[in-house]
Design goal:
By secondary structure, the protein is α/β, with parallel strands linked by helices. The chain has one domain (2-143, 172-240): Alpha-Beta Complex (Spore Coat Polysaccharide Biosynthesis Protein SpsA, Chain A). Helix content is 26%, strand content 29%.
């Protein structure tokens, strides 16, 4: 089974770290973020059903792609086959995925190259196959407090009826890991910046089966300097215990 890693973003929220190093190659502990993702894809499916084991990874690259290609080469020293789909400019998440279209002809996994995943991917693949879904997306519960108080008013006389200070909102969030059917790629325009959210909305409009796979943990987002520093400290601490 093939897996796609989207590793072509500019990493603007992590500048100046990403002026000379692409975000997926930023160090976490003793190896780059992208190597953690490769290891997870290879190892998390090794105990699953044979038809769900990942033995082939395609890296969708663009910005500073040579540093990624020079490090991973053909994947031989990582025990997995690695190929590359290159774009000459950033194309957003779905646009990056589109560059690998001619390399995909069966069910595949797609993950973002700026997060660390630790959940049981083999279970997600199995559920996707058993349900005959068009697309399955990994979701985690999330809650946060809004920065402002919410004011409720009576509609009739516009008097204030309630003041809730910085209320907590909660729900499920997408963590950028999918199991997809190749037909999903037909929903994405070629050579255009196109977000994954737009492509999924299009699938929903066409009444395709889009499933959610809920997991309670196993996700670290490396979105900005604070989250990167938090993740870096966690992995350095873990490395000290080895």
């Amino acid at each position: 089974m093939k897996a796609i890693i989207l590793a072509g973003g500019l990493g603007t929220r992590l500048q100046p770290y990403t002026f000379f190093i692409p975000k997926p190659m930023l160090p976490l502990g003793n190896k780059p973020l992208l190597e953690h993702i490769v290891d997870w894809l290879k190892n998390t499916t090794s105990k699953g059903p044979m038809d769900g084991r990942i033995d082939h990874i395609i890296l969708c690259v663009s910005y500073l792609h040579r540093s990624i290609e020079d490090y991973f080469e053909d994947g031989g020293r990582f025990g997995i086959k690695i190929e590359y789909a290159r774009a000459d400019r950033p194309l957003a998440t779905a646009g990056q995925l589109k560059t690998a279209e001619n390399m995909l002809d069966e069910t595949f996994v797609c993950v973002y190259g700026d997060s660390v995943y630790e959940f049981a991917l083999n279970n997600m693949i199995l559920e996707h196959r058993q349900s005959n879904a068009f697309l399955t997306m990994a979701l985690v519960p999330y809650k946060t407090n809004l920065k402002y108080g919410f004011i409720e008013m009576n509609g009739d006389n516009e008097t204030v009826s309630k003041w809730t200070e910085k209320p907590e909102v909660s729900g499920l969030i997408n963590i950028g890991c999918y199991v997809m059917e190749p037909a999903f790629l037909k929903l994405i325009p070629r050579s255009a910046a196109y977000g994954m959210d737009d492509a999924v909305r299009k699938a929903l409009e066409q009444e395709k089966m889009v499933r959610g796979f809920k997991t309670d943990s196993g996700f670290i987002d490396i979105g900005d300097k604070k989250t990167y520093l938090d993740a870096y400290k966690k992995y350095v601490k873990k490395l000290g215990k080895i």
